[in-house]
Amino acid sequence: MAASNIIPSLLLKDAVDFSEIKRVLVIKLRHHGDVLLSSPVFTALKAQYPHLEVDGLVYKDTQDMLSLHPAISQLHLIDRGWKKLGVRRQLEAEWGLISQLKQRQYDLVIHLTEHWRGMLLTRLLKPRFSVCQIYARRPGKLWKKTFTHHYPVNAKHRHTVEKHLDALRRIGLYPSDEERRLTAVAGDSAEHAVLDRLAEQGATAGEYIHIHPTSRWLFKSWDVDKMAALINRLQEKGHTIVLSAAPSGDEMRMMEDILERLVHPVINFSGSLTLKELIALIQHAKLFIGVDSVPMHIASATQTPCVALFGPSNEREWSPWLNKHVILSSNHPCRPCDLAGCGDGWRSECLSQIQVEQALNAVERLTS
Question: Is-same-fold flag (3-180; 188-367)?
Fold first, then answer.
């Protein structure tokens, strides 16, 4: 018997006997990147106990982060648009979801956030076992009594992936190094669409640098002039550049500012990619350059080398995961502050201190 299986039986008195578990529900109700960082939980459960049916519950708009994951049996969705349907239709939608989940008869529920909905669903589903992190903002008896297993984390000094996997360790499952990797699957349709578009632009898979300069939180983004200067320098060195950005107004305006400063044309897919196509584009790049946002996490999932610029957010929690990467940040004593820019002013001076030469050197290290 492997040592990882002996430890729970000797020391963890309330370890879960997975031979008695048939179905598991993993709940992750957060943003896209957070959902992708939960993907190793599904991998580890299925890899170590192939008999399990492992389901997920996420918001509808984040489903592409986990859909096609080979370890997931069913992916259940909550549509944030339900609240716009009116009280009666919203309640019908909510009850439909609850009925669907009840039919699955889960033996184990793993709740990976402090969202109240996960707590209520756990109480309604009445699994034999349930596990959740200890949250300072959820100290009440109702929350504590809902779950059979609770686990602590070092919030600021532990990567988010490991925090998720601690839920498994708490119940006696210790993931291997390979099982800790992220999983993001583009799918054949997205693959073909992206490869066709690249071919139309004269680009070849594995021969371009993909840059996603923006984030939905623009205070995480590098200065426009520095990003444009980096692109110009990379083109001077002969690199083919492909740009992308989400279709939001703020991000598209930022991309327009960058494009106005470029000396030569680039391949620009900004605002025109689905999430699955974004996965495919990053997967086929020789290098990804971006900030702390979901495309950076996708680069980790696709094992694409990555240059990541970090400002107010904490790289100990959110850095690229188990892929070849270089993190660029400043030595400001106040970072990471997790604020929306300095003084919540939506401009992060720590990011502005990162110089173009630093980024060029990082690219050289990863592509040489």
Answer: yes
